[in-house]
Amino acid sequence: MPSRQRLRPATHVLRRAPGELQFGTDPRWAVRFVGLDAAEETWMHAMTGTRPARTDASGLSAARRTTLLRLLRDARLLVPPPSSTAVSPAPGGGEAEAGVLGALLPDGDAHRVLAGRARATVAVVGLGRVGATLATTLTTAGVGTVTLHDTSPVLVTDVGLGGYRMRDVGARRDVALTRLLGEISPDVRTRCAPSSGAAGGSGPPDLVVVIEHRAADPGRVRELVGDGVAHLSVVVREADVLVGPFVRPGLDPCLRCVDLHRAEIDPCWPQVAQQLRDVSAPEHEESVVAAVAASVAAGQVLAFVDGSVPRTAAACLEIPAPDAMPRLRETSRHPLCGCGELTSAPPDGAPLARSARTSGRGRG
Ligand SMILES: [Zn+2]
Question: For residue 364, is pLDDT > 50?
């Protein structure tokens, strides 16, 4: 193998039959090499560092080696060395993430993605079970700064999922969660901020996740839309959780677009929604849908942080009890909303805050 290239990390090399090797198991990229003779098999194992040579491969011609190398490159199995060895705040330096991240990238450079996560700031507004689980998942995955917005007390019904314990009941949610995140990763930076401001903190975050109950309030994120800050809506409803839309202001339909579409179907929706927002009642979050919703939300957040377009951009995922199997609902910009004008007129005249992160990325 050329010294500058290596076998894509975490690739399984499996012998299926004499003369037949399989690289990888994921149907998105797994390939088989067939018709190999014993020397070629040995050379492939030795070259990829997957098994010590047990027979002599010296009889392999240079032309045949060149052909096999080309086939490995065509199958995207050879990648360059990592560009950096940046330290990730994730437990174990992010090694648990690196294999999967590397498999997904054309250049296999998981460390570059982990470095991007380490630089990222994500704000979480609403720290019940969904918010706490989301925050702990993001910390586990190596996000460097997590801003916490919820000064209300930990309820006994918050305990368990997400990490709150009985000893935390009565303490401020943001304070209790700060301690939990510090126990997961001593290197993660946390900030507590008022619940009232969706962005808050000492600088604009890369994105904000707003967790609400019963019905989303587009007014809460109006400032984020105007400031060009990406945000994800999560709404815990009667018997399901709605994850989405993920809004990159100026690029995707916003929460107000969703509300306007719904009001076309149900003209009474605005007054119904307002009543739902005004309800003053305990905000419980059922275990299974809360766990799945938090994980799905974390996936959307990390997709954005890692440079992809989240699937819930222009869509919502409904996660219903009891089995929590997500259902995708597409949405679109509403002509009366006007949020699309941000595309040509960003608020400060500069490119949108995270517009550089909009290019999709994938190995295929
Ligand atoms: Zn809109």
Answer: no
Residue 324 CA, ligand 1 centroid: distance in Å = 28
Task: Give residue 334 CA to ligand 1 midpoint distance, Å.
Answer: 6
Give the whole-angstrom CA distance, residue 42 versus residue 66: 15
pLDDT score at 55? 52
- Burial-class residue 63 by CB neighbours within 10 Å (0-12, 13-18, 19+): exposed
Residue showing tokens 């096999």: 68
Q: Which residue, chain included where needed, has tokens 């018709």?
A: 35
Burial of 237: CB neighbours in 10 Å, binned 0-12, 13-18, 19+: middle
Contacts of 243 (CB under 8 A, 6+ apart): 232, 233, 234, 293, 296, 297, 300, 312, 316, 317, 319, 326
Residue-wise pLDDT for 318-330, tens only, equals 999 999 999 999 9
pLDDT tens by residue, 98-135: 989 999 998 888 999 999 999 999 999 999 999 999 99
pLDDT, residue 281, reads 85
Distance of CA 164 from the midpoint of ligand 1 (Å): 36
Rounded Cα distance, 83 and 80, in Å: 8
Q: Ligand 1 centroid to 247 CA: how many Å? A: 9
Distance between Cα 171 and ligand 1 center (Å): 37
